[in-house]
Every structure is written in C-alpha cells, then in structure tokens.
Amino acid sequence: MSGQRRIHLNYFHHPSGCHEAGWRHAATDPRHGLDIAHLTRVARLCEAACLDSMFLGYGYTSSNVAASDMSLLLDPLVALAAVAGATRHIGLVGTMSTTFNQPYDLAARLSTLDHVSGGRAGWNIVTSQTDAEARNFGLDQAPEHDARYLRADEFVAVCKKLWDSWEPDAQVIDKATGVYADPAKVRPIDHVGEHYKVQGPSMFPRSPQRHPLLAQAGSSEAGRAFAARHADAMFTIAPSLEAGQGIYAEMKRLVAANGRDPDAFVLMPGLAWVLGGTEEEARRRADELIEGFVVPPGSLGMLSVFLQLDLEKHPVDGPVPELPSLEGFRGGQHRMRVLYDHVERQEQRPTIRELAGWFANQMRGHGLFVGTAEQLADRMQTWFETRACDGFLMLPPTVPRDLEDFCRDVVPILQARGLFRTEYEADTLRGLYGAPVEERALAPV
Ligand SMILES: Cc1cc2nc3c(=O)[nH]c(=O)nc-3n(C[C@H](O)[C@H](O)[C@H](O)COP(=O)(O)O)c2cc1C
Asked: How far apart are CA 254 and CA 108, in angstroms?
C-alpha cells in the first residue's frame, strides 16, 4: 500500500451496461431502462461495495436509438435525487451541459441535489458536442469547440458565485423577532460577463458541500485547461498505461500551475472488463458479448455521432472514409484522436464495420480487460502505483452482471491489499474524494 493514497472508483451507469450491445445480452433486461427501481438497486450494489460515486451521462439527442438503448437517459438530477433517498453514502454525479442550460437555473438544481442528498452531489460539466443536440436548441450546429469551453468557464464562475451568495450564518431563523435570514448576508452577485448577466443571490442557503464536486470529461487541449482550472475529478480515455501516465503527469502539472493542489485532483481513466474464473472462461464470456454487436441497417449511429459523419452514406464493408480534420472539429476531440490513432495503427485501412465493432467492443475507445479478478486487481494496482491514475471510471459492459462480478470479486482483493476503503470514511462526496472547496475556487474568473 502506498501511504494514505487510495483508489477512487466512480461507476458510469447505463441501464443495460456500457457496451452498445449490452441490451442484447442474455444477462440484461433492457426493459429496465427508465425504471428507477433498477437504478436504485444498482446504486445500493455500488454502495455495499463502498464505491465513491455513481455517474449518469446526459445528452439532448436520440441519434443512436436505432440499435442501442444507450441514449435513453433519465434527467440525471431528477434520477439521482430519487437515488439519494434510497442510499446514504454513495456520491451522485450528474452530467449537465453548459451550452444548453443557464447558470442560475442549473446552480439551483445542483444545489437542490446537494441539499437533498446531504452533500453527495457532483456535476460532470460538459459543453455538449453534437450538431444534433444544437438543432434542438435553435441552432444549426454546435457552437465552435473552444468557444464552448470559454462559455463554460464563465458559466461555472457564475455558479460558484451563486453557491457562495449566502454567508454561512445568513440563516437567523428567529421566531421571536421574525427574522428568518439576515439580508446583509444574502448578497446579489451582480455578474455581468460576456455570456451571462445574473443578479443573484441564490434562492438557497449554502448546501452541505458549498459547491458540488466538479467533474469534467473532455481531454482536448481546451478541455484539459478547463479541467485544470475548475475540476476536482476528471474522467478520461487512456487506451494504454503510457497514455494514462502521460495525461496524469500533464494534468497534475496544469492543476499546480493554476495554484491548486494536485493531490486534491483525481484523474480517472475509463476501465471496462469481462471476468471469468479462468482466462479461458473470461475470453468465452467476452466473445459472447462481442458477438452481440452487429450492424443492422441504419444503425451506425454511435460511431457516426462521434465522428460527426453520416456513415450510412458509405458501404459498411468498404474502407472507413477520411476522418474529419481535428483542427476546428466541433465534436469530442480527444476521442477523435483515439480513433485516429487506432486507424493509423492498422496495416490496412479498416472497414466501417470493423471500426464500428472495435469502437463498440472497446467501450468507445477505453479498451476492454478480459481476465480473472486477480489479474484485473493487478492491473489496477499497477496503473495506480505507477501514477497513470488516481482511480477509475468503471464501465461494466453489462449491468448488473459485470458490475456484480467486480463488486464481489475485485473489490475484496483491492481492500485486502489496502488499496481501497472498507467503509465510508466521510459524509460528503468531496470528503470521499479528498477534494475540499479551495479558497482559490472562490475567486471570480
Ligand atoms: C467518459 C466520458 C463520458 C462523457 N459523458 C458525456 C455525457 O454524458 N454527455 C455529454 O454531452 N458529453 C459527454 N462526454 C463528452 C465530454 O465531456 C466532452 O464535452 C467532449 O468529449 C469534448 O471533449 P474534448 O475536450 O475532448 O473535445 C463524455 C466524455 C467521456 C470521456
């Protein structure tokens, strides 16, 4: 064990799992998609294993619905509020876009989740990345990539000001005098910036964490800079140990360069697995999953979304067309880089079907570990101890099966090695991640 440093685990929930074809697997019941009882059961499973948090993605489009249930996403803040009532410790991280929301409203909703959950709220800050979403908000295409991050910067700054607009002792609650709150301690923020004009103050007293835990998952240059300024936790794609070590070193340096404590910044690459009692069994189970991925007509949605290309226009068994240039690309740039690297590594240009299969089976670029629980624990330990990560974004291909396997078989090994908690040591999500609100974060941007 390496001092007090411990692995952090954040589970990424999709009702049938994180594999596009998870819903077709015999072990899943895709009718559970919008069922809050299913979400709650899964949350309790994670909590029994002492995971730091669960995480819900969100996006304003159903472009992939032809062949997968992965875009059936409950509003995370509503769904997580329900989970809060059924759990006590686990952190609740919801994705919300800075491009298609307003800071006053979203700050209030996040504050609500933090109050309702007793200090367990987290916000995965996304800038949204598809034209399909933009077309639902009166635009023809997504705003330009780096401009979205600039807007996000101001958005988050406004939220922080709102969350701080009530002094800690603003609530007087004096029945005798009739003073509920001291107006001198509930102050307007009077924010006037390039994108937002917000008077404030917030409708709420400070929530238990003051600011929800701030997470971020974009790893382009602009994304890394944004994360270094604002994020307490960062989810990323690291297809190899070396890639993980590279982004780890860079992010810690950038966080420190922003005057923040790099040890309070948690980097979590995605991790997907299929386990078996033996390697052969694991391989067989993985093959079952992989065989579930087929390309029915009209179903190249997921890959098309990430490439921002209409792949249906091309023959599925023909070579992958030229990929869009990264320069000025409005979608997720880091994931695009991962796709580029994969295509370039192949001796022959892959067909669309091959690339779609690889993308799905590697959990959209994250990779898929196949082996025994002991081998997975070894791999996690190596990544953690050689500073490729501080923890993992857990991507079980099917749910609940692969998540149950992990909680039952891998967590005890990590605990026995002193790498993971055996009980919850803090009441708030920030407490679990060792990420207090920094004074620096309070300064306006
Ligand atoms: C693991 C992971 C989960 C993500 N979840 C979402 C999501 O739920 N909704 C969304 O709009 N973007 C999501 N994204 C996209 C990013 O947060 C980011 O906005 C996008 O990838 C652009 O990043 P870039 O900085 O690499 O260009 C996710 C990215 C990753 C790596």
From this structure: 30
Residue of minimum CA distance from atom 14 in ligand 1: 217
Q: For 410-440, what is each residue's pLDDT tens digit? A: 999 999 999 999 999 999 999 999 999 977 5
Top-confidence residue, 4 or 357: 357
Q: What is the pLDDT of residue 264?
A: 97
Residues in the chain: 445
Rounded Cα–Cα distance for residues 382 and 69 (Å): 34
Which pLDDT value is given to residue 2?
Answer: 42
Residue from 10, 73, 123, 124 whose mutation best tests the ligand 1 pocket (most atoms within 8 A of CB) = 124
The tokens describing 78, both together, are 């509503």
Determine the Cα–Cα distance for residues 235 and 246; give it in Å rounded to an integer: 14
Selection from 195, 234, 230 nearest residue 104 by Cα: 195
CB 15 within 8 A of CB 72: yes
User: Which residue is listed with tokens 């005798």?
Assistant: 176
- Residue 440: predicted pLDDT: 59
**Is there an atom of ligand 1 within 6 Å of 336 CB?**
no
Q: Measured from the CB, is residue 99 less than 6 Å from ligand 1?
A: no
Ligand 1 centroid to residue 217 C-alpha, Å: 5
Tell me how far the alpha carbon of residue 146 lies from the centroid of ligand 1, in angstroms: 14
Question: Is it the case that residue 445 has pLDDT exceeding 80?
Answer: no
> What's the pLDDT tens digit per position in 34-60?
999 999 999 999 999 999 999 999 999
